[in-house]
Amino acid sequence: MLVCVSMGSTGENWFRSLPTEAQHSQFLHDVADLLLKEAVFDDPAQLKTLFNFTPMDTPVTHTELIQIIRDTIVFSVKTGHPYFINQLFSSVDPYGLAGQWVTDALNPSVYTYEVAPVFTLMEAAVLEEMRRLVGFTCGDGMFCPGGSFANGTAMNIARFNMFPNVKREGVACAGKLVLFSSEDAHYSIHKMAALLGLGEDNVCLVHTDSAGRMDPLHLQTQIQRKTSSGAIPFMVIATAGTTVLGAFDPLPAIADICKQHKLWLHVDAAWGGGLLLSRSHRHKLIGLDRADSVAWNPHKLLAAPQQCSVLLVRHADILKACHSRNAAYLFQKDKFYDTAYDTGDKYLQCGRRADVFKFWLMWRSKASRGTLGFEKHVDAIMDCASYITTALKLRPAFRLVLEPEFVNVCFWYIPPSLQGLQKEPDFNQRLHKVAPQLKELMIRKGSMMITYQPLRNQPNFFRFVLQNSGATHQDMDYFLDELERLGTHL
C-alpha cells in the first residue's frame, strides 16, 4: 500500500511503499516460482478465449493476481530456456535479472545526476570501457532502446557532421543525401532513413560475396555512380555479424574507402560486438577502431537482459552538439554540483531507463561473468556452434547453406520424402515448405524453437543462433535429433 508519511519539522511528504513480508515477499516468491514452468502455445483466436485481456475496473485479490500471472507465464515463450534459438537474444543471467529488478524498483530516469547519481557515473564508466574495447582513445557514447535506435542515431549524427545546419534549417539545406549499406544489412537502416527524411530509396545497397560480406569493389562503384548522378554520399554502414548469415564485413577495406571519400563509417556490431571480449575471436572485428560510430547490444551475444544497447562514437562532443536543446527546467547550469554529469541532453530521449546496471552487475560478478567470465561465455557459444556445424555435416538429412564464421549456423533439413530428389525441378519449391511445417510442429509440441527464413533465391532454411552458454554438445545433438524426429513423416 502507499502511505503519505509526514517528515516532521521539514514539512515534506513522501510516498513510500511499505511491503510486508507476509504479503509482498510471498507474492514475489510465488511469481519467481512460476517463471521456469513450460510454455503452452495457442493460436491468437484461441488464446483470446483462454486469457481475459480486458482491463478490469474491480481490483482482484492476491490469489487472483497470482492466477493471472500464472496464465501469463504459461502462455508466454520462455526465452531463457536453452532450447530457445529463435532470435538474437536468449538465456537469463541471474545477476542481470537482479539488476533489472533493482532498477525497476528504484524507477529512476537517467537524465540528471541529481535523480540518478549512481547510474549516471556508472554509465560513464561502462561506456568508457566499451570504447576502450572497440579501440576508441576518446569519444562519447549513449545507451539506446535497441540497435535500431542506435543505427538511426548514428545516421542522424553522421548527417549533422557533414551538414550542421540541418539541425536548425531542416533536410532541404543538405541536398540529396545518400548512404551505403550491404544488401544483408539490418532492416532498421531503411526504417530510420524514412524517419529521418532521407528516404528509403536513398539507401544504396552494396552487393555481398558468397559468405554475405560487403563487396568493397562494388561499394567503390556505387559511391562513384551516386556522386556522378548529383547525389551527396555522407556515410557507409558496415555490419559486424549480419542478422541472417552472421557475416562480418571487411572493415579495413571499407574504412579505406570512407577515408578516401570523407564519409562517416558506422559499424552495426549489435550482434557481433560481444566477440571483443574473446581473445580467440576478436580478430573478426579488426578495423572496428577506424569507425566513427559503433552500435553494440550486450543483450544479444553477452546475454544481458533486454534491453541493453549502446552507441559508441569516436568524436567527443558530437552527440551533445547534434541533440542538445538545453531545457532550462531540467538542465540548469547553476546547480550546486558539476552539471557536466547531467548527460541527458545528449540523448534524443528524455525519460530513460537505467539499462546500465544489469550489465554492470554481470560484469562485476566474479561468480557470473567478469571480463574473463564473458570471454568464457563467448568461447563456449562459439565452440557449440562449431560442434553443431560438424555434426550437421555427418548427417545425410542436413545440408549447410554456407560454412559459418559466427554462431549463425544456417542449414536445410531434407525429410525422407525429399532425399535423393535434389535434381527434380520442383525440389526447391517443396523444400521451401519444410521449415515452416517443422517450426509449427516444434512449437506445438513445445520442444524447442528455431527460426527460419529465405534469403534471395534460396528456399527457407533454419538459422541456428546460440547465445546461451549453458547449452552443451549434448543439447546440440538434441536439436538435430528432434528435427529428424519431427520431420520423419513430412
Automatic annotation (TrEMBL):
<comment type="similarity">
    <text>Belongs to the group II decarboxylase family.</text>
</comment>
<dbReference type="InterPro" id="IPR015421">
    <property type="entry name" value="PyrdxlP-dep_Trfase_major"/>
</dbReference>
<dbReference type="GO" id="GO:0019752">
    <property type="term" value="P:carboxylic acid metabolic process"/>
</dbReference>
<keyword id="KW-0456">Lyase</keyword>
<dbReference type="GO" id="GO:0030170">
    <property type="term" value="F:pyridoxal phosphate binding"/>
</dbReference>
<dbReference type="GO" id="GO:0005737">
    <property type="term" value="C:cytoplasm"/>
</dbReference>
<dbReference type="InterPro" id="IPR002129">
    <property type="entry name" value="PyrdxlP-dep_de-COase"/>
</dbReference>
<protein>
    <recommendedName>
        <fullName>Cysteine sulfinic acid decarboxylase</fullName>
    </recommendedName>
</protein>
<feature type="modified residue" description="N6-(pyridoxal phosphate)lysine">
    <location>
        <position position="300"/>
    </location>
</feature>
<keyword id="KW-0210">Decarboxylase</keyword>
<keyword id="KW-0663">Pyridoxal phosphate</keyword>
<dbReference type="InterPro" id="IPR015424">
    <property type="entry name" value="PyrdxlP-dep_Trfase"/>
</dbReference>
<dbReference type="Pfam" id="PF00282">
    <property type="entry name" value="Pyridoxal_deC"/>
</dbReference>
<dbReference type="GO" id="GO:0016831">
    <property type="term" value="F:carboxy-lyase activity"/>
</dbReference>
